[in-house]
Write a structure and sequence with these properties.
alpha/beta, three-stranded mixed β-sheet, 260 residues, L-arginine/glycine Amidinotransferase, Chain A, 7 helices, single chain
């Protein structure tokens, strides 16, 4: 994670970043601390920090830093110029933590667009921020099968905004973010009883941008329906107010990068 010391919205690189509602820095700090503390206290997570950098407001969204697995990391190559200066900071921190860092030749936005499902394959998004050719690098580097999912709406610009793998092979996802082929890929690889869909309203509240640690699922203000649906599958939904980060198009998952 990276503290939101310099978090604000002063440019627009996705439809959520309207800039007409300024970020409240104090509230953002409280919300970020609440997420960090909840993951530590409720689920025993261990947190490593990336120092914040003035002028890099989106550094707080560490999910996009890299795809990390075992002892290697494929660093982000951001599509938008506004985020490119984040790359050396993420690279330095990952190397400090002992990872071998690879740099892709094409746009690729880390764990924002590549998620490990059921410890056996990668669900990877493309079109909006990541080039599909980057998926081959994931497969060849980690010897993991990669299922490529086209994201066909600008509001769900990373795969982690519309899909969240959960323990035990469960999958939380928003069907409206994928094309017909992508839905067929999901349905062919995830058993029906393991699939948990969210509504359009829940998706726009970033329900899929969740962090799972053990049986705890941390997410922005979930609906009662979703809390109950997760409970039936053995998970505890822990709702948090992350409204300040939604102004930039991110929530709990965007604020974290899982280190394997």
């Amino acid at each position: 994670m990276s503290p939101p010391d310099y978090f604000e919205v002063f440019y627009a690189i996705n439809p959520w970043m309207k800039g007409d509602t300024p970020v409240d820095p104090g509230l953002a700090a409280v919300q970020w601390e609440s997420l960090k503390n909840a993951m530590v206290e409720r689920a025993g997570a261990q947190i490593s920090l990336v120092p914040p950098v003035q002028g890099l407001p989106d550094l707080v969204f560490t999910a996009n830093a890299a795809f990390v697995y075992q002892d290697r990391a494929i660093l982000a190559r951001f599509k938008n110029d506004e985020r490119r200066p984040e790359e050396p900071h993420f690279k330095a921190r990952l190397e400090d933590l002992g990872y071998t860092v690879l740099e892709p030749p094409v746009p690729f936005e880390g764990a924002g667009d590549a998620l490990i499902y059921d410890n056996r394959l990668v669900l990877a998004g493309y079109r909006q921020r990541t080039e599909v050719s980057a998926h081959q690098l994931i497969s060849s580097t980690f010897d993991l099968p990669v299922l490529s999912l086209e994201l066909h709406t600008e509001h769900f610009y990373h795969v982690d905004t519309c899909l969240c793998p959960l323990e035990g092979g469960h999958l939380l996802y928003y069907p409206g973010a994928f094309d017909e082929y992508g839905l067929k890929v999901i349905e062919a690889n995830v058993p029906e009883e393991k699939r948990l869909t969210v509504t359009a309203q829940e998706a726009r509240n970033f329900a899929c941008n969740a962090v799972q640690v053990g049986k705890s699922v941390f997410l922005n203000q979930p609906s009662a329906r979703l809390v109950e649906a997760l409970k039936r599958r053995g998970f505890e939904a822990i709702g948090l107010d992350l409204s300040e980060f939604l102004k930039a198009g991110g929530s709990a998952k965007c604020l974290t990068l899982r280190l394997y």
